[in-house]
Amino acid sequence: MPDEATLPLIPLDADPFVLFAEWMKEAEASEPNDPNAMAIATATESGVPSVRMILLKGADERGFVFYTNLESRKGGGLLANPHAALLFHWKSLRRQIRIEGPVEPVSEEEADRYFASRSRNSRIGAIASDQSRPLADRAEFEDRIRQVTARFEGQEPLRPANWSGFRLVPQQMEFWQDRPYRMHDRATWTRQENDWAVTRLYP
Question: Which part of the chain is the Pyridoxamine 5'-phosphate oxidase N-terminal domain (predicted)?
C-alpha cells in the first residue's frame, strides 16, 4: 500500500456523481469480477431489514438503477417501503461508497430497453423464475426454462409485467478510502434542496 503521505485525500470540492464515476472507472480496471456489484439494504413496511448483493445497471445525476422481479422479496419490500441503502466495496482499491435515499420505479421504456439488452438465456431465466419463492426441486425450474424456451421459439422473449427496475435517488453519499493504521479518510455529501452539504468525517 502507498505511504500515507502520498495518498490524496477525498476532494471535498468534487461533484459526488463525478467522483463516483471516477472511482467506478478505476474499479472496472482493477476488480477481477463484477466491479458494479453492490449490497442493497431494504426494509419491510414494519422496518425489518434485509440485505443482498445485486448489480448496478445505470448511474447518472438522476440516481442509481437496478432491476429485479417485482414479486421477489426485494421487489416487494421496495414497493412497500420505497427507501434503500447501497454499499460498494472495492477490495482491490480499499474503497467503499455508501449511498442512501428513496427509490422510484424506472419508466416502462427504460425497463424494456434494459431487458432487451440482456442475453436471450438471461431473459428466459427471468421469465421462468418466481424469484425468492420456494423451489421444491431444481428440476422444476429447469423444466420451466424448457417450457419458456419453447414458447418463445423464433421470437424475442418480452419483458414480463412483474419484472422492472428501480432508481435510488441519493440523499446522502459517503466516500471511504483506506489509510494506514485505520486512520481512514471519509467524506459525506448530503443533499440540501438543489445543492450538497459536504463534510469530512472522523474514521
Answer: 26-150
Place of cell 486512520: 183
Residue with cell 423451489: 135
Q: At what angle do helices 138-151 and 120-128 cross, to 10 degrees?
A: 120
Pair 27, 90: CB distance under 8 Å: yes
* Parallel, antiparallel or unpaired: strands 58-60 and 63-69: antiparallel
Q: Consult the annotation and say whether 68 binds a ligand.
A: yes
Q: Is 127 annotated as a binding residue?
A: no
Cell of 38: 453492490
Q: Grid coordinates representing 55?
A: 448489480
C-alpha pair distances (Å), 102 with each of 5, 17, 26, 106, 170: 38, 17, 27, 13, 7
What are the tens digits of pLDDT across the range 17-39?
999 999 999 999 999 899 999 99
In whole angstroms, give the CA distance from residue 128 to residue 148. Answer: 6
- The model's pTM is 0.92
Conformation bin of residue 71: beta by default, left when phi > 0, alpha when psi is -120 to 50: alpha
Binding site annotation covers 94? Answer: no
